[in-house]
From TrEMBL:
A molecular function (GO) term: succinyl-CoA:3-oxo-acid CoA-transferase activity
InterPro entries xrefs: 3-oxoacid_CoA-transf_A (IPR012792), CoA_trans_fam_I (IPR004165), NagB/RpiA_transferase-like (IPR037171)
Protein name: 3-oxoacid CoA-transferase subunit A
EC number: 2.8.3.5
Coiled coil: none
Transport keyword on record: no
Entry keywords, A to Z: Transferase
Pfam families in the cross-refs: CoA_trans (PF01144)
Organism: Ancylobacter polymorphus
Length: 235
């Protein structure tokens, strides 16, 4: 069966349900599944647990699901610069599981690799380690962290062939490759779809075996979250 679907709606058909866990790729606003998030919003599915580096920015990304109160819990690394997230968390509407960024990435990678737990020194002696086993290795304490897996991963890539082999571009690579391996179903939006066998095998970042459904992205805004400019120096 073809992995290519004609729209975000058709690609997500039959996959969404209340209370599910969704991994959403991206770092800041780079590599966000811009076309798939609005369709999840339109579906009205609620009480979602969302695993993502961050919760989007005002008016964009996962912010769209926060606005409609569809997210019940966020498992994230960075929650700054999102006033709506702050309001919902402080009011008790939204549950938050905060992770050091490297720990979040490794928990997702472990989920894809079938590793249920691992030890890391990051977070020992802080609130991150509260309620978690701590063991000593070679004289240093390590906290035990567990894998992360999801019902659905929504990710964004630059290019895909019809078999689902993916290539990411620059910073948009971020959490997307790991998330593609750690969910029961992976839906990817791409900017370009080419025929199977036309991609350089050495350039493929995510093998097609991890990809279930593909759409050509309908939104490619690629916003810059915090543009920084400087005056051009005189010649």
């Amino acid at each position: 069966m073809s992995k290519i679907f004609g729209s975000p709606e058709s690609a997500l058909a039959g996959l969404l349900f209340d209370g599910m866990t969704i991994m959403s790729g991206g770092f800041g606003l780079s590599g966000n599944p811009e076309s798939l998030i609005p369709e999840i919003r339109r579906s009205g599915v609620k009480n979602l647990t969302v695993i993502s580096n961050n919760a989007g920015a005002d008016g964009f990304g996962l912010w769209m699901l926060l606005e409609t109160r569809q997210v019940g819990k966020m498992i994230a690394s960075y929650v700054g610069d999102n006033k709506l997230f702050e309001q919902q968390y402080l009011s008790g509407e939204l549950e938050l599981e905060l992770n050091p960024q490297g720990t979040l990435a490794e928990r997702i990678r472990a989920g894809g690799a079938g590793i249920p737990a691992f030890f890391t020194p990051t977070g020992v002696g802080t609130v991150v380690a509260e309620g978690k086993p701590v063991e000593e290795f070679e004289g240093r304490p390590y906290v035990r962290e567990t894998w992360l897996r999801a019902d659905l991963a929504i990710i964004k890539a630059w290019k895909s062939d019809t078999a689902g082999n993916l290539v990411y571009r620059r910073a948009a690579r971020n959490f997307n490759p790991n998330m593609a391996t750690a969910a029961k179903v992976t839906v990817v939006e791409v900017e370009e779809i080419v025929e199977a066998g036309s991609l350089d095998p050495e350039a493929i970042h995510t093998p097609g075996i991890y990809v279930d459904r593909i759409i050509k992205s309908t939104i490619n805004e690629k916003r810059v979250e915090k543009p920084t400019t400087r005056k051009r120096e005189a010649a």
